[in-house]
Design goal:
alpha/beta, about 375 residues
C-alpha cells in the first residue's frame, strides 16, 4: 500500500524525533511492502519566522491532501517569555485541529515493566497500568470567546460545548472500551460547571447504547488524585479539552518520562499523530531527545490505517529497546545512546528481528541496513 504523509516537524526537538519516526515507517515499508511518501511543511515558530503565520496556507493545503499527518512539536522560548505576543506558535496547532476537524485526542498511558523504577510513583501502585485518555479537542475553553479589557486588568475565556461535540467523542470512547476492559470513566466537574452537566447528561444517555460497557462518573479533582493513587482502575478515561490536557500530562509521569508518550488526534476525515512532550528547546541539536514517543505515534498511525501487524511490530521494537536498555538519558542518566542510536536500534529490529545484540557496553548492529 502507498501512503502520503504530511510531516510537520515544527520547532525544538521536533525535527530530530520526527526523523526517527520516519525511519521506523520506512523500515515497516521495506518489511511489509508499503511505501510512505513524506512531504515537509512549516508550522509553529519556524512558520512564523518564514511566513509570518503559525499555520501557513500551504501547510494547511498539504494536510488536506495527504493520508495523515506526522507532527513534531511547536513552541519557542521567545514566545514563552512574552505573554503580550499576539501571534504565537501554539495558534498553529489549535488552528490545524479546528480546520481539519480533529475532535478526538487519544493518549495511551502505560507502565513499562522494565521502567518501574523511573516513575516517581511506587511500583506496586503503577504496575499493570494501561489506560487511554479520550480528550475532546475542538471545544471548551481553548476555543471559546476570549476577552481582555483595555487596561489589561480583566480577562475571560468562555467555555462552550454542544451535544454534538460531546456525542462524537463519546461514541469513539465507548467503541474503544468494547475492545478492551469495557469500562469508561467520565471525568467532569458537574457539581459546579454547566458544561460538565451537559457532558454528564449526554454521556449517560449514550452509555445506554453500549450495555456491555460500564460507565463510571468522577469529578476531576478526584480523578487527578486517583490517577496517582490507583491508576490501574482506569480503562478508557473520557473528558473535555481542558481537563484532558491536564490529566493526560499528569498521567505521563506513570511511565517515567514524557518521552514515551504518543498521541493521536482523529477527525471524521483527517488524522494527526504526535508525541506529547513538547519542543524541549534545551535539548535541541544535542542528540539526547527521546524519540520513542514519536515512533509510537507512528505506530498509532499504522493502527489507524488498519495495519495492526505493522503497528505491533513497531511497539515490539520499542519494547525490545527498553528491555535491552537502549534508551536516552531521560530514562538512564548514564546512557551512551542518543536520539539517533535509539532510532537505529528500533529500525534494525523491525528490519531483521533477532539480528541485534549486546556486546559489552555497546550495541552491535547486525546485517540490516538502516533506512
Amino acid at each position: 500500500m502507498n501512503f502520503k504523509i504530511a510531516v510537520l516537524s515544527g520547532d525544538g526537538i521536533g525535527p530530530e524525533v520526527t526523523s526517527q519516526a520516519k525511519k521506523a515507517l520506512n523500515a515497516i515499508g521495506v518489511v511489509y511492502n508499503h511505501e510512505f511518501v513524506f512531504e515537509e511543511a512549516y508550522i509553529g515558530s519556524i512558520a512564523i519566522e518564514k511566513t509570518g503565520k503559525p499555520l501557513p496556507d500551504g501547510t494547511l493545503n498539504l494536510c488536506r491532501n495527504t493520508d495523515s499527518i506526522l507532527f513534531g512539536a511547536i513552541g519557542s522560548p521567545k514566545y514563552d517569555n512574552d505573554p503580550t505576543a499576539n501571534v504565537r506558535p501554539e495558534q498553529g496547532l489549535l488552528s490545524l485541529r479546528k480546520e481539519l476537524g480533529l475532535f478526538a485526542n487519544i493518549r495511551p498511558i502505560k507502565a513499562y515493566p522494565k521502567l518501574m523504577n523511573k516513575s516517581p510513583i511506587k511500583k506496586e501502585i503503577i504496575q499493570g497500568t494501561d489506560f487511554i485518555v479520550y480528550r475532546e479537542l475542538n471545544g471548551g475553553m481553548y476555543f471559546g470567546e476570549k476577552t481582555t479589557n483595555e487596561e489589561g486588568t480583566y480577562a475571560s475565556d468562555l467555555c462552550e460545548y454542544s451535544s454534538d461535540e460531546i456525542s462524537k467523542i463519546t461514541h469513539l470512547a465507548f467503541q474503544a472500551a468494547q475492545l478492551r476492559l469495557k469500562k469508561v470513566t467520565l471525568v467532569d466537574s458537574s457539581n459546579v460547571l454547566a458544561t460538565s452537566r451537559l457532558w454528564r447528561k449526554v454521556v449517560t444517555k449514550i452509555a445506554k447504547e453500549y450495555p456491555d460497557v460500564t460507565l463510571n462518573c468522577m469529578y476531576v479533582v478526584n480523578a487527578a488524585t486517583q490517577i496517582i493513587l490507583n491508576p490501574k482502575q482506569f480503562d478508557i478515561l473520557l473528558t473535555d479539552n481542558l481537563f484532558g490536557d491536564i490529566l493526560s500530562d499528569e498521567a505521563s509521569v506513570i511511565s517515567g518520562s514524557k518521552g514515551l508518550m504518543p498521541s493521536a488526534s482523529i477527525g471524521e476525515k483527517y488524522s494527526l499523530f504526535e508525541p506529547t512532550h513538547g519542543c524541549y528547546y534545551e535539548a535541541k541539536g544535542k542528540n539526547i531527545a527521546n524519540p520513542v514517543a514519536s515512533i509510537l505515534s507512528a505506530a498509532l498511525m499504522l493502527e489507524h490505517f488498519g495495519l495492526t501487524t505493522e503497528s505491533k511490530k513497531v511497539i515490539a521494537a520499542v519494547e525490545k529497546a527498553i528491555i535491552d536498555k537502549v534508551v536516552t538519558v531521560d530514562l538512564n542518566v548514564d546512557s551512551i545512546f542518543g536520539t539517533n542510536e535509539v532510532g537505529n536500534f528500533i529500525v534494525n529490529y523491525i528490519l531483521n528481528e533477532g539480528d541485534t545484540y549486546f556486546k559489552g557496553d555497546f550495541v552491535q548492529i547486525g546485517q540490516s541496513t538502516i533506512v
